[in-house]
Amino acid sequence: MTDSRLIEITNRIIDKSRDTRAAYLAKVQKSRRSGPSRHHLGCANLAHGFAACNDADKLALAEGQAGNLGVVSAYNEMLSAHVPYGEYLEPIKKAAHEVGMTAQMAGGVPAMCDGVTQGFAGMDLSLFSRDVIAMSTAIALSHDMFDGALCLGVCDKIVPGLAMGALSFGQLPIIFVPAGPMTPGLPNAEKAKARQLFAEGKVGRKELLAAESASYHSAGTCTFYGTANSNQMLMEIMGLHLPGSSFVNPYTPLRDALTREAVHQLARISAPDNFTPMAEIVTEKSIVNGIVGLLATGGSTNHAMHIVAIARAAGVIIDWQDLSDLSDIIPLMCRIYPNGLADVNRFQAVGGMGYLMRELRSVGLLHDDVKTVMGSGGLEPYTKEPFIDGDKLVWRDAPAESLDDSVLRPATKPFTADGGMRLLKGNIGRSIIKVSAVKAEHRKVTAPAIVFHAQEEMQAAFKRGELEKDFIAVVRFQGPKACGMPELHKLTPPLGVLQDRGFKVALVTDGRMSGASGKIPAAIHISPEALDNGPIGLIQNGDMIELDAEAGTLTLLISDEELKGRQFATADLAASHEGMGRELFAPLRATVGKAEEGATVFSW
Length: 604
Fold this sequence. Notes:
Helix 1 (4-16) packs antiparallel against helix 16 (320-329). This protein folds into three domains: 4-183 and 218-397, no CATH class; 184-217, no CATH class; 421-597, Glucose Oxidase, domain 1. The longest helix is centred in the middle third of the chain and has 18 residues, at 253-270. It is built from 23 helices and 14 strands. It is α/β, with parallel strands linked by helices. Helices cover 37% and strands 13% of the residues.
């Protein structure tokens, strides 16, 4: 039986989404057709569409009644997670032929690696790349020759962008196809130690690079539980992946079999008697299931924006209060780095998604009356995991018990009773904090502000030895309108060093910290941002700030009268708006919405 608290929150979301959801479904219904989609095209249009196909595919596309599948891929060689996709197209075509269908590469979408651009100018394009990917997905599918689609993507902005774009074609059955994580490398604790030692100047660049290279060492997703792997969990728990497919390593027989089966399953749900379009899978209840998964696993704070944007693309309205209220009732069942020491391979080995979903389902913390790419039978298929049996792909029940309760625990005996992602409110604005990796003694900090307008300024102050004290770093003019809302990972090592030295430290910013949010209390995504005349722009050096993650408050400890008398700070952002292609994104900076509304340029 579904938990009454989950039902109450979901009903609230359904109520406030009633008009927007109805409008979305009406748009989808208008786009539906009977028979192969391409048959409505003119002869010249269709001829262009299959001009380069082989003779058999030309005949099938010209005269056949079988469906044609579009492939939208984020393949490139800059993302280790996406390198395997370079070998997916021909096996997908072969699998489509096996079930009497055809498949075509519909288009590629851009995919940047945040790990490469982190701390540099290219990172200012990262958040906006999500919306560009959504538009690119629409361009790929706009040829209107497809009766279903496969979306190939893994990492940070790519999966949310693909999902947003695919939802504009919600009349089609669509399956997301993962590529899997790289095998384990340098243990996460050793990687974190190397970064901290480098921040303290105790090891050099050569030693740091050796540690990083031993950690990120092959094709596949980075193995920590950041946004990329949170994406994979999200697609599975929302029913857009095949069961158990998220965390199977690349270049293995099981991975290949799952990709082939994804094509075959797409063929099944494209058939008239089993037709399951994406619009019927992504609903208010499946969105709530996705949030439940994020909270139960300690997922990425980036999804405080991405899940909001995905939901809005489907006509569903959620906000940070919904996330915070759900966090209050969802147990934290996982400890995966940076919320623990294990990587996603370990999570998969000790029980993985099948165990997690069966546990949540058993205590009524997932909506089971949902459709998935497996059909209308609810989430029961997702309590199983895939295996190769001889030459066949089969699913068996996930382990009855976790094989390591330091990594994965039952819903009834969690690490904490709540999910650890909370809304902070106060006279500085609204923000999100992730406390699943923050020790209890660090969750309340009262200290004077030190204000910076860039993470480089704080790094420089740390190197000069000016931060050996209690303080709250206020890093502003980092929001989407200001400079594209870059992630501020470079702040984690110095703040971690200072916390380890016994100082009370915290971060308050209108920027992001992403899936790698760790042991430092960080009030992120402050909204309104400084460039929107948010109160964060009124803070001055020395002002006392209280961050209380337990109470859910973020307070500037000065009088309202004094605050009203202050002038908003300004910043020269010209250097963040030019070079590395940033000048091309001026229209996006000018039109982007608030972080709590998904930080998107689209208005649904």
